[in-house]
Design a protein that fits this description.
Helix content is about 45%, strand content about 15%. It is of the alpha/beta class. The chain has one domain: NAD(P)-binding Rossmann-like Domain (Rossmann fold, 3-Layer(aba) Sandwich). Helix 1 links the parallel strand 1 and strand 2. Helix 1 crosses helix 8, helix 4 runs parallel beside helix 5 and helix 6 packs across helix 7.
C-alpha cells in the first residue's frame, strides 16, 4: 500500500529512543522530513550520528519555554508542519495510592497530559496551513483500563483520550485529524522497568508479574515499537483521511492489566 508520505513535515516528541525513535525512522523511511525533541541530549547526539536526516531540539514537553523553542527550531528545519506525534511520556511511580509520592504523581500528569497540550497549542496554527494535517497522541491501553499501583500513569492516559476527542471536535472544521494510539505491552526498557517495579509493589517475582500481564492478552505477546509506528504512519496518510477522534489500540487484545 502506497502511503504517499514523501515530503510530509513531522514533529515527534521524545524521539531519541524507543517508540519515538521507531516512529521518526519510519517516517523518514517513507520520505518524510522529521524533527524530534528529547530531554536526553546524549541520545540525541547518538541519533544524529546514526540518522543524520532527523533534526532535533533538546526539550522537555513539560517546559513551555522549551516547547516554544522546539517549534521555532522545527519551523526552521521543516518549513511548516503536517504532523505532530505527541509521543513523550513517563511511566510515573508504582505504588498504592496512599503510598504515591505526590510530586512524582504530579510530574507524571504534567509530562504525559499537559505536555501534549503544550505541543498541540503551538501546532494547530501551522497545521491549518497543511493539506494533510494530523495530530497523533500516544495514550496507552491503560487509557481504557484501571491498573492497580499505576494511578498517575493511568489517569494521564485516560486524560489523553479525552483530550484527543475534544481536540478532534475543535479542529475538524480545519481538516485537521486528531487520533490517539493506545499501545499495549511494548517490548523495550520501559516495560522492563514497569514489571520490576510492579513485582516489587505486589510482592511477586519478575516472571510472575510478566506472565500475569501476558495472560490477559489474547495473542499472549507484547507488541513492538515498529508496529506502533506502522499504525501512526497509516493514520497520517491520506488513506486515513476520514479517521479522526478515535482511540485505536495496538495491543494484541489486552483485556485487563
Amino acid at each position: 500500500m502506497e502511503l504517499q508520505l514523501v515530503g510530509l513535515r513531522v514533529i515527534v516528541t521524545a524521539g531519541a529512543t524507543g517508540i519515538g525513535r521507531a516512529i521518526a525512522r519510519a517516517f523518514v523511511g517513507e520520505g518524510a522530513k522529521v524533527h524530534i525533541c528529547d530531554v536526553d541530549e546524549a541520545e540525541l547526539g547518538r541519533l544524529a550520528e546514526t540518522d543524520p536526516a532527523i533534526t532535533s531540539t533538546v526539550a522537555d514537553v513539560a517546559d513551555r519555554d522549551a516547547v516554544a523553542r522546539l517549534f521555532d527550531d522545527a519551523q526552521t528545519e521543516l518549513g511548516g508542519l503536517d504532523v505532530l506525534v505527541n509521543n513523550a511520556g513517563i511511566a510515573g511511580p508504582t505504588a498504592m495510592v496512599e503510598d504515591q509520592p505526590p510530586l512524582e504523581w504530579d510530574r507524571c500528569i504534567v509530562v504525559n497530559l499537559i505536555g501534549q497540550f503544550n505541543c498541540a497549542r503551538h501546532a494547530i496554527a501551522l497545521l491549518k496551513q497543511s493539506a494533510n494535517a494530523s495530530i497523533v497522541n500516544l495514550s496507552s491501553i491503560s487509557g481504557r483500563l484501571g491498573v492497580p499501583t499505576r494511578s498517575p500513569y493511568v489517569a494521564s492516559k485516560w486524560g489523553v483520550v479525552g483530550f484527543t476527542k475534544s481536540l478532534a471536535a475543535e479542529v475538524g472544521q480545519h481538516k485537521i485529524r486528531v487520533n490517539a494510539v493506545l499501545p499495549g505491552l511494548v517490548e523495550g526498557d520501559r516495560i522492563e522497568r514497569v514489571l520490576v517495579a510492579r513485582a516489587k509493589a505486589l510482592g511477586t517475582t519478575y516472571d510472575e508479574a510478566r506472565d500475569a500481564l501476558l495472560a490477559h492478552t489474547s495473542l499472549r505477546t507484547m507488541v513492538t515499537a515498529e508496529e506502533i509506528a506502522d499504525q501512526i504512519l497509516f493514520l497520517c496518510s491520506q488513506r486515513a483521511r476520514s479517521i479522526s477522534g478515535q482511540a485505536i489500540s495496538v495491543c494484541g487484545d489486552l483485556q485487563s492489566a
